[in-house]
Design goal:
The complex is a heterodimer of chains A (115) and B (111). Chain A is mainly beta and 115 residues long. Chain A has no helices and 11 strands. The N and C termini of chain B lie far apart (37 Å). In chain B, the strands form 2 sheets. In chain B, strands 1-9-8-3-4 form a 5-stranded mixed sheet, with no helix packed on it. Classes of the chains: A mainly beta (115), B mainly beta (111). Chains A and B meet through β4, β5, β9 and β10 of A and β4 of B.
């Protein structure tokens, strides 16, 4: 398995500001992903964080709004820029695949509220 | 990734078997069926996966139809702690890593 921690666990921010979320894994992993889960909704993949190169963004997500860093194989950050209330969501870091089952492991999430 | 269809919600009595269906009629021959669940306020958790054969582990059983167009996740003796949203996901073999989540089934286990 993989132990994933995220900081902060929750935050309340003002519109127009930016927040950087950190994801730390207890061992080196090849793939790291960032997901968003809006209130009452399923998870939506934002991007794949690539070590040593630019992140790969899914349709509807852009680097200017969600810049991502991946400086090494155990750490990544996601910044939510110029926030609006619509950005209020849970942001989850995920790593994988690992083990025989090629499963992905998820962090506990960061609950963001934008006022 | 192939699209999946799941009922939005299901109820189950504690101690009874919970059978969660999933349709994946456009699944390709090399795509696997994965099940994850998300307990309230937590990140999703892997349950089980399969390709063609039925699978069983300590958490659940997975029954895949012969034509692979549908599957059923079985929790043999549901407990209150199994109350969660269950996601059925179809994905390509190892080497193609990203998981795409559908809307899932909200399972409520009651006393």
């Amino acid at each position: 398995s993989a132990v994933i921690s995220q900081k902060p666990s929750r935050d309340i921010c003002q519109r127009g500001t930016s927040l950087t979320i950190q994801c730390q894994v207890d061992s080196q992993v090849t793939m790291m992903f960032w997901y968003r889960q809006q209130p009452g909704q399923s998870l939506t993949l934002i991007a794949t964080a690539n070590q040593g190169s630019e992140a790969t963004y899914e349709s509807g997500f852009v680097i200017d709004k969600f810049p991502i860093s991946r400086p090494n194989l155990t750490f990544s950050t996601l910044t939510v820029s110029n926030m609006s209330p619509e950005d209020s969501s849970i942001y989850l870091c995920s790593v994988g695949p690992r083990g025989q089952s090629n499963e992905q492991f998820f962090g506990p999430g960061t609950r963001l509220t934008v006022l | 990734d192939a699209k999946t269809t799941q009922p939005p919600s299901m109820d189950c009595a504690e101690g009874r078997a919970a059978n969660l269906p999933c349709n994946h009629s456009t699944i390709s021959g090399n795509e696997y069926v994965y099940w994850y669940r998300q307990i309230h306020s937590q990140g999703p958790q892997y349950i089980i996966h399969g390709l063609k054969n039925n699978e069983t582990n300590e958490m659940a059983s997975l029954i895949i139809t012969e034509d692979r167009k549908s599957s059923t996740l079985i929790l043999p003796h549901a407990t209150l702690r199994d109350t969660a949203v269950y996601y059925c996901i179809v994905r390509a073999p190892p080497g193609f890593q990203k998981l795409v989540f559908g809307t899932g089934t909200r399972l409520l286990v009651s006393p």
